[in-house]
Design goal:
Helix content: under 10%
Strand content: over 45%
Number of helices: 0
Largest sheet: 7 strands, mixed
Structural class: mainly beta
Radius of gyration: 13 Å
């Protein structure tokens, strides 16, 4: 039974930080790429970051590059998204998903999402 479960969202002030976690079960994380995506009300779904199974190669969307960092702990079957210097426009529901072995916009499994709100 494959599951991806996001956690770590919450309310934070502009300039603050959060760390999101994506706990994976039902498969070995070593073999799969994990993508973080987000969706804000009235906006299109946006790719945030992806980490591949191959040598941990990472990619970032332009809007988060330099502020967010994706990482993977295969022993814990968990992927993290460290978010620093948060802005109100980062407010969204954040999802993790797997696209198989490579980073691509085609997803096999999704988590339930975790809400991130950046506000004064």
């Amino acid at each position: 039974q494959v599951q991806l479960v996001e956690s770590g969202g919450g309310l934070v002030q502009p300039g603050g930080s959060l760390r999101l976690s994506c706990a994976v079960s039902g498969f070995t994380l070593d073999d799969y790429a994990i993508t973080w995506l987000r969706q804000a009300p009235g906006k299109e779904r946006e790719g945030v970051s992806c980490i591949s199974s191959s040598v941990g190669t990472t990619i970032y969307g332009d809007s988060v590059k330099g502020r967010f960092t994706i990482s993977r702990d295969n022993a814990k079957n968990t992927v993290y998204l460290q978010m620093n210097s948060l802005k109100p426009e980062d407010t969204a529901v954040y999802y993790c998903a797997t696209s198989g072995r490579i980073c691509r916009d085609e997803y096999v499994y999704w988590g339930q999402g975790t809400q991130v709100t950046v506000s004064s």
